[in-house]
């Protein structure tokens, strides 16, 4: 039982639930209603969607394992009490599970792509696997590169659902169709939200983990630029995200979706400003940054749940 619990901690099961929830809500609260209202139908059947979702989760789980595998020296300093690899599960087994999960995830991705007649889409999971490997071995130790890579992959977990919709990619005419434009706009907004919020969280985590990162020779943003400049840069992104949320709220109001606009303001914008943006500049200890990072995860969840309104309003 201890090994099973350790395995689920190692693969970050709450984050995997976030990914599954994001893709499920996007498919059945956004993509399906938009297409059905336009007289079309989603390209993915439920079994195919389930396979795609499992593929994404397996690749992400493999990525978390390989990250812990190469972060042992950092974690010994930053969070020794939370370590799993080399403490509960030995490194050889961790690498074996990384390989098994990646192979299963990539295989499922190719199987779905083949069954819908777009075999090349299977390479999306191959690219994600490679990016996660190089992130763990190299990118995360370089200024901003690791932050950008993880943020792109976070946004990609949203966008990948749209990749499998023929209405978006089949032809130029399809892209210019009503349903194609609408899906691109909605998916694009959620992907942008995920990218910027993930970037903010990654830098907050770098601030939290500065001691261990510096001892391991990492060149993260706070280490290279200094804490003050890193915080100013992050505040700039926070203001940009707050502005994006204000624009989304206003657009939602103009459409007459008052309930959705109220939800975005009360459960996404207000908590972000009050619990993330406001305390950030005064934060200076790891526990402060950890608290802010936790609130960012809450914002991710409330942002994801806003997709439910498309099912209600469309």
Secondary-structure topology with pairs:
Elements: H1 2-10, H2 13-37, H3 46-70, H4 72-78, H5 91-115, H6 123-137, H7 145-163, H8 166-169, H9 172-175, H10 178-208, H11 210-215, H12 221-225, H13 227-254, H14 258-280, H15 286-305, H16 308-313
Shape: globular
Give me the Rg, rounded. 20 Å
Low-confidence stretches: none
Number of strands: 0
**Would you tell me the structural class of the helices and strands?**
mainly alpha
Number of helices: 16
What is the first-to-last residue Cα distance?
Answer: 45 Å
| Beta-strand residue fraction | under 5%
Level of helix content?
Answer: over 70%
Order of helices and strands: HHHHHHHHHHHHHHHH
What's the rounded overall pLDDT mean?
A: 91
| Main beta-sheet strand count, sense and barrel state | none
């Amino acid at each position: 039982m201890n090994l099973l619990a350790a395995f689920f901690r190692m693969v970050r099961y709450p984050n995997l639930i976030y990914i599954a929830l994001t893709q499920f809500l996007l498919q059945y609260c956004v993509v399906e209603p938009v297409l059905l209202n336009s007289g079309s139908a989603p390209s993915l059947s439920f079994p195919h969607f389930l396979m795609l979702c499992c593929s994404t989760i397996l690749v992400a789980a493999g990525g978390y394992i390989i990250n812990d595998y190469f972060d042992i020296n950092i974690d010994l300093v930053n969070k020794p009490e939370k370590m799993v690899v080399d403490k509960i599960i030995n490194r050889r087994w961790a690498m074996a599970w990384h390989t098994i999960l990646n192979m299963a995830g990539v295989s499922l991705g190719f199987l779905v792509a083949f069954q819908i007649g777009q075999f090349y889409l299977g390479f999306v999971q191959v690219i994600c696997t490679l990016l996660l490997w190089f992130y763990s071995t190299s990118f995360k130790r370089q200024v901003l590169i690791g932050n950008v890579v993880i943020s792109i992959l976070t946004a990609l977990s949203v966008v990948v659902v749209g990749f499998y919709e023929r209405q978006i990619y089949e032809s130029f005419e399809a892209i210019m169709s009503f349903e194609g434009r609408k899906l691109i706009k909605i998916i694009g907004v959620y992907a942008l939200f995920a990218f910027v919020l993930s970037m903010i969280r990654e830098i907050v985590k770098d601030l939290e983990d500065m001691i261990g990162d510096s001892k391991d020779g990492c060149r993260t943003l706070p280490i290279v630029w200094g804490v003050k400049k890193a915080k100013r840069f992050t505040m700039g992104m926070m203001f940009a995200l707050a502005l994006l949320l204000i624009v989304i709220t206003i657009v939602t109001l103009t459409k007459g979706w008052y309930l959705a606009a109220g939800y975005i303001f009360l459960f996404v914008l207000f908590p972000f400003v009050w619990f993330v943006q406001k305390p950030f500049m005064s934060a200076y200890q790891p526990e402060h940054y950890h608290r802010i990072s936790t609130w960012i995860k809450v914002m991710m969840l409330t942002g994801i749940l806003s997709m439910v309104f498309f099912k209600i309003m469309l």
